[in-house]
């Protein structure tokens, strides 16, 4: 179901993607728990669907939940946590919330530089995101 939802999201079929993503998220919450990595991934996917539609508040609410839970469960410098922070920064950037986006993007970039090196593709992506903002 999650894969089909991703296909719909990639095609811009937002309502169909959202319907499946909500179902996957709720089922994973029930079966695996709210803080399970798969549940968090499904929440992030739903947030991406909201972000792609300009539904900023809904995207932000989920992204903050995912980010905070990953910080607690995985640590602030875990790759999944950093991706969550970058996603939230993207939501801020798309709203013109430049300072908030910049703060998060600098954090992601600096952590990736330290953990992965300055020439790692993820670090370079972070640098590009910051430059874009």
TrEMBL record:
Top-level taxon: Eukaryota
InterPro entries noted in UniProt: NLR-like, TPR-like_helical_dom_sf
Signal peptide limits: none
UniProt-listed PANTHER family: AAA+ ATPASE DOMAIN-CONTAINING PROTEIN-RELATED, ATP/GTP-BINDING PROTEIN-RELATED
Name of the protein: Kinesin light chain
Organism: Emericellopsis atlantica
